[in-house]
């Protein structure tokens, strides 16, 4: 009681971090509720009957009617929505998949690890490559290398991600045989190996913006007074770069990566399809083509929740790292 | 670093080097021209060099989500069900009916009694013997369930005369029955599901087929292992068969090229020659039971007019369309019935052949002599259909019919044509069995659930001929009935047959003995991997 009243007191203060946190949490929950409602209704507006998808073109009207009943699609929309919400709260699930019979939560749980691993690998590749390119560009400002690196984002930003994936497959997998064309290999090493090309493809869409941001930040820091002082003090360039410049430039870039996480998730879903990886993305594609409502809703909802949670964590982390950013996200 | 910098400052060096690298990469492919391996079953060839065992990986665009043979129709499940369950009689790669689990069958002269004698020593994959009781149970369940491939014949009784003899008696003659029995949905399952619940049985199915389900993810891959109790001695030669889910077409082709799969189920016409000429890949083909067609909604204000339909048929150069779009993997269609099905009249029928002047004259007889505007519905994502649509559009323009192409996503496309919400559409029709009645009934019976394939085409003479064909015993008389029927359809054109596409499977050159059936399924029991 004492604790909560003191929390309330603290949150009443406009600048209090607690008030900020509570507001951020409320906002997150509101976003998730909106997504849940939107996802339920939008998918029902799209034409296409799941019963016909299951039974095929040659199904009889009686069979379709009985399938509607089995799936609960003959109920009024509001009752379907109530069931949907009830299921969400009791089981954390959007119901059993129409096509595969198993619960959506199980399907997603089966597919999630490979997608998460792909996102992690892609982020790692994106960060590492961006760091190297941005450092090279910043330290060679206005020289050929800088120009080349700055042209790179302009070109790559114009390339559709699936096309990059297809190109990599064609050259590195089909022609040269260096990487598997698709699927996920056996065991840890097999998995990491087969996810390398997809990870590079997803990273490709992230690198341009990261390089731009990091290069600009590094140039700003490189030209700041304290670096000039350090240089004057005779500290080697390498040490200044590693110890001071990178550290001071990294935060905004990490925040940018956080903001990009939703694009990263979207990109991963497309790339999974191109590389034949059985993750969340390919599950979503099949579910859409089969009008498998529960699965589409489940994936959209879980993706939305992860994006909201990640954004929230990044807001908290950046605020913790640099209190000046508080509430400015 | 400075050396690298100075090197990079010489674009005249970098450019040619990059080009050389690209040329090298592009040049890393060979080419060859192997003949189609077709009808693959060639187990006698090089028999000494063939090695048993190994895993055959087959890339398929959809996962298998049910083994309930009486409730399924789509190829994603049918082509897995037919590996586990087998019917009493079946068809070969030429579409001819052959005995399978039955060593012989006979039909009484009045066309009412069908007698099947089972092979000796026939066992289910769990080792129990197959008896006539199992056949009674299987067909009875199919009758009870109905399902999408319901038995249309009026069955009076099913009887196990003795352990090996199974007799079906009909209430009235229904000639297509024998060929319909070849369907996968008439596969034999153990009596009373072998003592387990229905649900449990179809999760772990037990049949007489060459393969048994080993590992199955309804939303992913399916692994079969060989049935050691299989009735064909020594077969299958491979140990495992994996159905690998690859939903993306280009991913499937790339996996085939890279040798990650041994064959792929879906190969588009435009990719066929690339795969055929690949260093390690080839194309296996067979004639299909499919007819690609332009369908008219006969309830539509324009296409209810027979002269409009005939005019468009005359304006369309079907031969040119087929040559331009199918890369030699199709035959021009004159009749609705594909040449791979008995009683087709493709060579003798009088079809409305390309003649623009005749087309104009025909349109002049219609209620819209100066032309009109209409829409052609197609499903998106099928480049061949998109091109067909453009050719049809041009044909329409030549006689004053202005056709707008409406391309929509497959699920919505189906929804639209099931609701008659279209004027004309492109689609194909496929027979389920080697029997004229199959596709004809599906596309001409306005009272059937398909309502003449959602064209609502109604013609009493056609309905009469259809019923006659179902009751007339096989022979020239039945042939005449279907010849008449096909000619009426060619004259009234509720649909314009365009071409009969071949079945194409992309296959690694190391595969021997693959059999392509005219329904699109494969037989793997004769397959050897080199």
UniProtKB/TrEMBL annotation, chain B:
It is found in: Cell membrane. It is a lipid-anchor. Residues 96-448 form the Solute-binding protein family domain. Its main location: membrane. Keywords: Signal, Transport. Belongs to the bacterial solute-binding protein 5 family. This is Glutathione ABC transporter substrate-binding protein. The lineage of its organism: Bacteria, Bacillati, Bacillota, Bacilli, Bacillales. The gene is oppA.
């Amino acid at each position: 009681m004492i604790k909560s009243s003191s929390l309330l007191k603290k949150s009443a203060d406009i600048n209090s971090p607690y008030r900020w946190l509570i507001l951020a949490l409320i906002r997150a929950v509101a976003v998730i509720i909106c997504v849940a409602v939107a996802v339920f209704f939008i998918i029902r507006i799209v034409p296409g009957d799941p019963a016909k998808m299951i039974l095929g073109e040659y199904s009889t009207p009686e069979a379709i009617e009985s399938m509607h009943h089995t799936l609960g699609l003959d109920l009024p929309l509001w009752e379907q929505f109530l069931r949907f919400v009830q299921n969400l709260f009791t089981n954390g699930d959007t119901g059993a998949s129409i096509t595969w019979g198993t619960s959506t939560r199980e399907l997603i749980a089966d597919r999630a690890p490979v997608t998460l691993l792909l996102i992690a690998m892609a982020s790692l590749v994106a960060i590492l490559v961006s760091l190297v390119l941005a450092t090279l560009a910043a330290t060679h400002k206005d020289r050929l290398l800088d120009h080349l690196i700055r042209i790179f984002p302009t070109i790559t930003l114009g390339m559709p991600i699936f096309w990059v994936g297809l190109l990599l497959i064609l050259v590195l997998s089909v022609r040269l045989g260096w990487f598997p064309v698709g699927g996920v290999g056996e065991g840890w090493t097999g998995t990491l190996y087969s996810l390398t090309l997809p990870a590079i493809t997803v990273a490709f869409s992230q690198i341009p913006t990261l390089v731009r941001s990091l290069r600009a930040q590094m140039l700003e820091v490189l030209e700041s007074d304290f670096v000039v002082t350090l240089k004057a003090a005779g500290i080697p360039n390498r040490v200044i770069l590693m110890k001071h410049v990178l550290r001071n430039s990294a935060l905004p870039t990490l925040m940018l990566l956080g903001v990009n996480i939703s694009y990263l998730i979207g990109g991963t879903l497309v790339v999974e399809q191109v590389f034949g990886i059985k993750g969340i993305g390919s599950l979503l594609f099949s579910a859409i083509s089969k009008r498998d409502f529960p699965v589409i809703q489940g994936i959209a909802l879980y993706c939305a929740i992860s994006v909201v949670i990640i954004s929230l964590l990044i807001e908290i982390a950046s605020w913790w790292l640099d209190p000046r950013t508080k509430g400015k996200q | 670093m400075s050396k690298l910098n100075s090197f990079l400052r010489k674009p005249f060096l970098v450019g040619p080097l990059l080009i050389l690298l690209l040329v090298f990469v592009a040049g890393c492919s060979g080419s060859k021209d192997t003949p189609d391996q077709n009808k693959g079953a060639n187990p006698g060839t090089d028999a000494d060099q063939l090695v048993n065992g190994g895993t055959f990986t087959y890339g398929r665009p959809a996962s298998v989500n049910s083994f309930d043979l009486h409730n399924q129709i789509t190829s994603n499940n049918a082509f897995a069900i037919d590996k586990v369950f087998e019917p009493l009689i079946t068809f070969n790669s030429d579409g001819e009916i052959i005995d399978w689990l039955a060593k012989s069958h006979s039909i009484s002269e009045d066309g009412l009694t069908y007698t099947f004698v089972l092979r000796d020593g026939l066992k289910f994959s769990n080792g129990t013997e197959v008896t006539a009781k199992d056949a009674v149970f299987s067909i009875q369940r199919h009758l009870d369930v109905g399902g999408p491939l319901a038995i249309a014949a009026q069955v009076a009784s099913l009887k196990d005369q003795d352990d090996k003899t199974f007799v079906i008696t009909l209430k009235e003659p229904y000639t297509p029955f024998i060929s319909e029995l070849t369907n996968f949905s008439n596969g034999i399952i153990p009596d009373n599901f072998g003592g387990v619940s229905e649900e449990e049985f179809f999760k772990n199915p037990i049949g007489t087929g060459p393969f048994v389900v080993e590992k199955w993810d309804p939303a992913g891959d399916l692994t079969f292992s060989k049935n050691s109790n299989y009735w064909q001695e020594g077969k299958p030669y491979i140990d495992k068969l994996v159905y690998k889910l690859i939903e993306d077409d280009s991913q499937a082709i790339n996996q085939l090229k890279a040798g990650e799969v041994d064959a792929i189920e879906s190969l588009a016409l435009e990719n066929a020659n690339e795969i055929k000429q690949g260093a390690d890949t080839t194309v296996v083909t067979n004639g299909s039971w499919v007819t690609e067609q332009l369908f008219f909604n006969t309830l539509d204000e324009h296409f209810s007019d027979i002269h409009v339909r005939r005019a468009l048929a005359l304006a369309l150069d079907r031969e040119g369309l087929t040559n331009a779009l199918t890369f030699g993997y199709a035959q021009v269609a004159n009749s609705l019935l594909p040449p791979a099905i008995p009683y087709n009249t493709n060579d003798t029928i009088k079809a409305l052949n390309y003649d623009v002047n005749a087309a104009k004259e025909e349109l002049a007889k219609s209620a819209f002599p100066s032309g009109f505007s209409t829409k052609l519905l197609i499903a998106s994502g099928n480049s061949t259909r998109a091109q067909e649509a453009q050719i049809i559009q041009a044909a329409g323009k030549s006689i004053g019919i202005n056709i707008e192409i409406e391309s929509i996503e497959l699920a919505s496309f189906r929804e639209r044509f099931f609701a008659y919400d279209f004027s004309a559409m492109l689609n194909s029709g496929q027979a389920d069995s080697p029997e004229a009645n199959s596709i004809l009934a599906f596309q001409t019976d306005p009272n059937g659930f398909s309502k003449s394939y959602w064209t609502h085409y109604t013609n009493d003479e056609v309905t009469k001929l259809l019923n006659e064909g179902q009751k007339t015993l096989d022979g020239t008389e039945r042939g005449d009935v279907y010849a008449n029927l096909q000619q009426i359809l060619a004259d009234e054109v509720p649909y314009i047959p365009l071409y009969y596409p071949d079945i194409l499977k992309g296959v690694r050159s190391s595969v021997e003995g693959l059999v392509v059936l005219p329904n699109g399924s494969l037989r793997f029991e004769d397959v050897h991997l080199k």
